[in-house]
Amino acid sequence: MKKLTAKSLVKTSLQQSLKGKSGYLTDREIELAYHQGIIHTPRTLYDSQIQPVSLDLRLGQKAYRIQSSFLPENETVEKKLKDLKLYEVDLRDGGILEKGAIYLIPLLEELDLPATLFGCTNPKSSTGRLDMFTRVIIDRGHRFDEIAPGYKGKLYLEVLSRSFPVRVQEGISLNQLRLKQGNAEITDRQLQTLYKKKPILYHKNGGAVDWDKVKADDGLFISVDLQGANRKNSIVAYKAKANSQVVDLSKTNHYQADDFWEPVYYSKKHRLILEPESFYIMMSKEKICIWPDLVSEMVAYEPNSGELRTHYAGFFDPGFGWHPGKGAKSQGTRAVMEVRPHDVPFMIEDGQTFCRMKFERIISEPTRLYGKQLQSHYHTQELSLSKYFKN
């Protein structure tokens, strides 16, 4: 792996380059933040960790099996950990995280944020598709996955693997950090103006979805596809098997899917009844194109009944589904959705609203874009499992 080395850009002050701007930091600013000590680590930081608008955070040497989840509020994480720790798992040569058990793992990266910057974190796509629930906590933090302006200290990752036991190792990345300054939100009125110039949603068979056909309310809503290829043997979803072997997260394109997943096939009724507390991988009906000057997050959507939870890892980098030089027929990539119903069986139908996509600004257009350049795993995906499984 290529080490991240100092460049001429380090001569520029990050605070100067961000002056008067609002939005998420992109790869150039994240690199500056590292060289100027805002992000630091006792290990080498690698160029491959820097994504278009985020930094991959790495697991440290130990995982602590804990009794329960917690938020430290007015105390340090280490102090709370003393009361809740059951045992340690050494991750230097790899260790097993058992299905259904909660672990806390100190991360290798630490922060020394200025008062103008705050952070947020989310699972990586491959983590969410494996039904791994992860979230970051910090010293004296009162919310998960949020890092207050001016925070100085360590980052800790809470991990719960809900479907499979997994083997992880020091240095593996399960989640990402994004840094933001000011108000990055894009209103629906602003989004409408942007959308009419650069459509974001496309029909699965090609062509942009007209704005007057889009459901917009604090972002755009997208729906689930239960038609697939519209034939008998077409797979429209995957359901995690209840009992399976360990998934080693150091191995990609390695495992046979049918050892871990049950395919769910097309039904003429275009509907599916989801079983309580089962985990499903599904596909959006619409294709999505995130232009290079935007970022998007797929927000967990829960009907008011609380019977359905969709999406654990929902961050879309600039360039996702964007195919420069191609027409509207070729734009967009469909989104994969992670779904877990609660309490009772829940029926869903083709075209049912499933997720909301929230859009925000970035400080500048990144030099890296999601896609072939970064060897992104899901740039042209259809119904795709996590990268650990053979296609």
Automatic annotation (TrEMBL):
Its EC number is 3.5.4.13. Residues 188-389 form the 2'-deoxycytidine 5'-triphosphate deaminase C-terminal domain. GO terms for biological process: 2'-deoxyribonucleotide metabolic process. Residues 22-182 form the 2'-deoxycytidine 5'-triphosphate deaminase N-terminal domain. Keywords: Hydrolase. GO terms for molecular function: dCTP deaminase activity. It holds the Pfam family DCD_C. This is 2'-deoxycytidine 5'-triphosphate deaminase. The gene is dcd.
